[in-house]
What we know:
The chain contains six helices and two strands. With 148 residues, the protein is mainly alpha-helical. The chain has a two-stranded antiparallel sheet. Helix 1 runs antiparallel to helix 4, helix 1 packs parallel to helix 6 and helix 3 packs parallel to helix 4. The longest helix is centred in the first third of the chain and has 29 residues.
Amino acid sequence: MTLSMYQASVPVFARALGNLAHVLQKGEAHAKSKNVSDEVLLQTRLIPDMLPLIKQIQIACDMATRGAARLAGVEPQSFEDNETTLAQAQDRIARAIAYVNSFTAEQIDGSETRTVVMKMRTGEMTFEGQAYLFGFTIPNLFFHCTTA
């Protein structure tokens, strides 16, 4: 049996974000039991030089949504980074999951050799689809979900 690019991306992205939503619910319950506000929790960092929780959530969502779009060869949908409450963070995750799930196998399968170009602050990064999925998107998605 072969594994398609779709099977290795969309379900993995959606599951990771679903797990992130679940962990965030647990964190919210704990924070509320300690009288920690949404704003304080969302701005919490593991250590001073790391990004805060909300930024980890935003980046995880962006990894999944942009990853699916780039593999499909379409311009990624933009999500504003303006969440200030846990409900807004959960909504962003839900919108990201819905967006990722909107892609079909026909759009993504065969993208192993599709050229993916990303504009970064330091310049452009170019990948072939398979290297982009397994060497960039999945590791970064899991890193930011885990860090969150």
